[in-house]
## 1
Amino acid sequence: KNQVEQSPQSLIILEGKNCTLQCNYTVSPFSNLRWYKQDTGRGPVSLTIMTFSENTKSNGRYTATLDADTKQSSLHITASQLSDSASYICVVGSKRGNNRKLIWGLGTSLAVNP
Amino acid sequence: DAGVIQSPRHEVTEMGQEVTLRCKPISGHDYLFWYRQTMMRGLELLIYFNNNVPIDDSGMPEDRFSAKMPNASFSTLKIQPSEPRDSAVYFCASSLEAGRPSNQPQHFGDGTRLSIL
């Protein structure tokens, strides 16, 4: 069964600290892995998209890594800011012929406190 | 540039009533997606369109749900009759993929928070 599991479920850190969020998946065939940020009351916003051949991608203070062999990804946030408080969702894309699917994790809820 | 626009932002109605959610995708985008988000199940894809044509509706929970895309700038998701278990946040997203490398991001609206009493 195609699944995406994220950990931790929630996390509280102090402003200025770094943190790493984890994503494990069992999706086949694998096409791509995405990280989205969702602020409370808003729609998700794309942070990074990685294909099988990419093992790291950055977007400002956000750096995503991908290990396709172990089927793991991480999202590292550097020098956190209050505005980083949000839910971070890992999404794995699968494509078979012309049909494609995105399998969404339940997200990690991050709170950055002053 | 205007993003994906959804209306209404909030909808409260009684069980059995018809509910219509509306979406205007980003101009020029060729894919449109409808999602439902709940705490327990996260984001679930209901249906998606390519160039106004429904491609995969396997996520539509039952016949009470229907979606249309009469033109490139408008889509509706209808629930008739509505039930309390349909209460959730419904998102519309669009993407532009024609002529581009695969794996383009989806751009989401801010959702419709639906409560069925």
Note: The radius of gyration of chain B is 14 Å.
## 2
Amino acid sequence: AQSVTQLGSHVSVSEGALVLLRCNYSSSVPPYLFWYVQYPNQGLQLLLKYTSAATLVKGINGFEAEFKKSETSFHLTKPSAHMSDAAEYFCAVSGPGNTGKLIFGQGTTLQVKP
Amino acid sequence: DADVTQTPRNRITKTGKRIMLECSQTKGHDRMYWYRQDPGLGLRLIYYSFDVKDINKGEISDGYSVSRQAQAKFSLSLESAIPNQTALYFCATSEARTGNQPQHFGDGTRLSIL
């Protein structure tokens, strides 16, 4: 069965510091992987997705993620945090078959300190 | 106007009441999904629908039912609400091509059951 684990429910960084949010997945087939962001009182917004075209995926707002098959990881990074990046971030893997179902990680809340 | 609209945005009700949450979309997508979000658990799939005649249970469908009234409308019902159904509920849509299509989320309905 497919699953996603996000290491760290809360991450705190200073403004301008590197952001690293960790995601590990389990999948018996080549996965499709996604990162979503949720701002307060809003729905989830797609940051980026991995669909096997390239292992380094660039997304919106300066975020990127690298797919590492050997480590079963898809960590999200941003070189320099901005106050507006404070939000909850979810990693997700597409479920088996062509159902389009997503299996989500538990979420990581990013706090950005001035 | 939002592409995926959920109504109501907030609802407080009592144990035992019947509740309907509604979702409508203007994206023209065939696939629609209902999730609930609980702190520390991420999003979990309740029901999903590939078209008006194809409705499927997700991982936590007990206590819920759905209706796909049209391609654009997908409603979630709680027949007899109980306090542990207090959560944030999201509707999402996706294209019916392959599993790598991202989902598009509404802004959610915050449901409290007393």
Note: The mean pLDDT of chain A is 92.
